[in-house]
Fold each of these.
Amino acid sequence: MSTRGRLLANLTLHGSLIPDADSAYDLGSPSKKFRSLYLSPNTLHLGDASLSSDGTGIVIPAGSKVGNDSVIVGNDLTNKVKGDTPYNITLNQSGDLKLLTGTQRWYSPFNAQISGITSRLGTAPTGSSVGIRVNINDSAETTWTFAAGSATASIADQTINLSTGDYLTVDITSIGSGTAGADLYTQFVYKQT
């Protein structure tokens, strides 16, 4: 049986492995893959882009993208996407509302700007309104009400700036005088600044 073109043992190189033509050959195939690829921390070149390692993680070049979104390159890859990409967080109080100083806290993971607030009730109050107050670091920032019989609140456009580590809480300041409102959901739309 001919073994021409087949390697029957490990191949040990004493120099670089260089093809005789540029971009002409593959290493493996879709159905015949290599199992693992071991590289030193030096650079892996992909076309005109390059990846390398600093020993604990991969160094991603500036201008890299995840889908169509630019990623942050630098000291904080946990921020993931920066710019106009919107995020949202919802704070809720389940069941019949009670006068309450917000116990749920949401901490901003980065400098951010809240650009909108949407608030809804599962059950509308009767008799009088439900009052809501949003605090930043326990300091009142904005308020609104759910009118008697209404399960949605009209909240004017908001621009609230947060620094890394600032936290939001939602207080319930009134609950209705006939039937208390129930199941409060307050959604904040924000982006990294």
Amino acid sequence: MKNYFNYFTEIEEHFSRLRQRHLFVSPMDWGLIELWKNSGIPLHVVLWGIDRSFEGAASSGKRPPRTLYYCHPAVTEAFEQHRVAHVGAGEEDRQTEPSAFTKEQVERLLQDLSTALAGEEAEDFQRARSRLAGLAEGLREQSRPDYEKVDRSLSHIGGLVAGALLKAQDRDSRREVRKRIRKDLHVYRKHLSAESYQELFESYLNRQVIENRRLPPFSLFDLDSSL
């Protein structure tokens, strides 16, 4: 049983071991990992695909992959083989509850996010604060919270906040931000479907907008990695 909140760190550490140096994945690769997770690709299948990328590079005399982007074709191929092999097998790739942080730390993150948005009066910000308050109330009432559900809710709220921040910018600024994101992600278009590329684009855009505003991360993954 793989830990939902180890998905990112396991991939990062595995990639670093194969590269034989400690590397922090880029924000773009972070978005790619999120895309794999949201697509339901199990952790062991991702690691298998990464292994195959390095093996393929070594056998052909090429340099090892420098970013996770170069591993994406092998990961998607490995996932397809995994799905074919397990059709009807009833295999579950469910994730377990995290143990790397406490309920109090999650409550503190929700409070920090609410405080950071306190001065914003636009309707979308008010909706975000209301949803954060609902998450906090639900968390207090549960002895064993569903942290995966909390994390997904936070991601949705983060998208709402990022959209509101973009709306507050003038048209030229919004166009420039999107142009910069497209430039950063241009290499990903080759191996991603239009739908997957758009999902990666929006995820990376939201993260960049929130980081540029110096808001706390709308993610328990970031809380976990900060411990």
Amino acid sequence: MSDARHAPDYFRDQFPYTSPPRTLFDGVHLAPSPAPDPFITDTTFRDGQQARIPYRPEEIRSLFDLLHRLGGRAGLIRQTEFFLYGDDDRRAVEICQDRGYDLPEVTGWIRARKDDFARVKAAGVRETGILTSVSDYHIYKKLGVDRERARRMYLDIVDAALAEGIRPRCHFEDVTRADVGGFVVPLARDLMAHGEAAGIPVKIRLCDTMGFGVFYDGAVLPRSVPRLVRAMVDEAGVPGDRLEWHGHNDFHKGVANAVTAWLYGAAAVNGTLLGFGERTGNVPVEGLVVEWMGLTGRQDVDLGAVSEIARYFERELGYAIPPMTPFVGAKMNVTAAGIHADGLMKDEEIYNIFDTAALIGRKPGVMVTDKAGLAGIAFWLNRRREDAGLPPLGKDDPLVAALHAFVQDAYRAGRTTALSDEEMEGALSRIL
């Protein structure tokens, strides 16, 4: 079915499909207008479960505790959302509600169906996300309706939520391929008016479902994150504290787009622990926390929880975190270059991103290969001597030279991988 007044617009100049999407510019620049109180919302237990084996309720409780801890005194992580369909979903909601935390608030997620509100009421949550697809790709191709019918359908379901006293959060799915001026802004205006009439605020989540958003200055709609956010605030009248960004990482822009949404007026950005989510994943919550600290200068969060989250995923959930993953990977602050190790020995601030030992409980380290050099061997050795209360050795010490010779001999014999701590410690014992 098509609407004669609004034939589907698939923006083929930007989304040819026969090649990667194109970024177009028109030379118009927007000044940032940051949200005064930026915060984080979480979808680990909703979108994050669509990319892995579902969590058991007890595992959700442990991760919920860590989210609460990570948000710290700042209460930075304000909400987390849950499916409400299966027995395990409902049990997880009950367990997390029983923790008694003010934050993160437990919220729901439902389809755009009125009979799903019974699940929301039964779960005792005050807010729920509602799937609200806004691109013509979804309206015409997936739903099989036209824009006007989709608009009426969305307003009807929101009115049903308001009648039940439930705070609706409309998930504008695929907004970065949508007609912003022709459909997105008018729909948002209608939603604001319906919420005002009911005396219940309606929230809008801008969902970059396919990761098409770009943060570049001067880029055009619908891909421009700055213009999307400002269109919602300036043209649709959506208050910044009711506007949320939900991004995906298909084009490596997840964190950058989310921070851009903050900078142009959306108060909330949405993510998941470790970035789990459909396809290439969502925006990692731990990355957002670090960005928030940098933007605000505040430290009243518990960044140390990041390392505990990583340990929980690896030890309790059996997930092998890619070692080079920022903030949580085993090698996030480990160097294999001798010249970097030499700098770390002189002052770790030269090659460490921040005081990782104090903030996330992770001292910088070195990976021992044939490229580590004498400095790398000395750095590895001195980490152990420090733990044993012994003074450091210089890279010209005979013990360092003997260990370096062991490493070089291993590679001359055909070694191609880094030496493990256990192998190095065995060699150290033999040399001593």
Amino acid sequence: MTPSGLEAKDLRPFKVEVPEAVLGDLRARLTNARFPDAFPGTGWEFGTDDAVLRLARERWLGGFDWSAQEAALNAHLHVLADFDGATLHAMHARSTVPRSLALVLLHGWPSTVSEFRHVIAPLVDPAAHGGSDDDAFDVIAVSLPGFGFGGPTRTPGWDAQRMAEAIAVVVRELGVERYGVFGTDAGAYVASALASIHEDAVAGMHLHIGGVRIAGQARADPSAMSDLTDVERKALDDLADYERRDSGYALINGTKPHTIGYALTDSPLGQAAWIIEKFRTWSDRSGDLAGTHFGAITLDDILTIVTTYWVTGTASSAARFYAETGASLARSGLPVARVPTGCAAFPGDIVTPSRRWAERAYPNIVHWTDMPRGGHFSALEVPQLLVDDLRAFFRPLR
């Protein structure tokens, strides 16, 4: 496969600086927010827990420090690149170790590059974090077009394939000729497209392997339903539970993203409810949201992601990924990446697939790790486990 000829019109430096007027408007909307009625004691039964959302609003208004989040993000180089219909944002954290392997990190929904905030330092400077300089990476954390700091996409057609083509252009513009790629959730689709387009440049692909699509495909194929393992039986049960109780967001994003986009773009409380519920449902919780922690994920981590969506106005364009990528997958399927592939499966994820099923979608899996803990947001929940697995997978591919 070859790139579509996308060209970056203007690669330029960028700094995360949200105008005070935008933050003031956010505070005013939160202060005057209207809460819906909630039945006492229902908790999460009908969606986001009212008590949790009230706690989150209090933290957002009176303790969460967005300026500190900006400073942490701005510790790294940021660039923007304009394409027809979108602006791509990337955060480039360079290692001081000579000949480090470049590693492109691709997040999913409902997330942003901030999901990688706890893995960047140990990837870039492993010796300072219990590792060896031999495992150092130059990290390029990309905001998927339409998600976060690049702003909304402006024309139709920004599916996983086109995103991958734009990312390949920006990586090349940054002077990188050979690199690895990691993807999770939506980012896994983009990673597969990137690796299939640029097999000569991608040293290997590591995935936080999600099981919804893989288990769904296996369930539809009688040959995959024989001699089921315990992992596969649980995956089918989890998939059925997901479809029955948790898939509404995907149906909305995939069919009417603009309808939900109006609500999320107009109400920060609604944006928070939409995202916090997913962090609660999809994380491997060691307890429920209490104080400023949500299992292993802090509330400030979540609020950084929610604030990014709010100040960039990208709720609608991020949701459109489901509609546009879903349409392209229906037409031609996911591009097959034949580069060396590593997979990490997390027991607290939505659905945890088996290696046997995953190999039907990814034909060159050379590394597989069944993690002892962690859920859908591994870079926030179990950053050290993810870092260790990335190091191990890419070590022979350098």
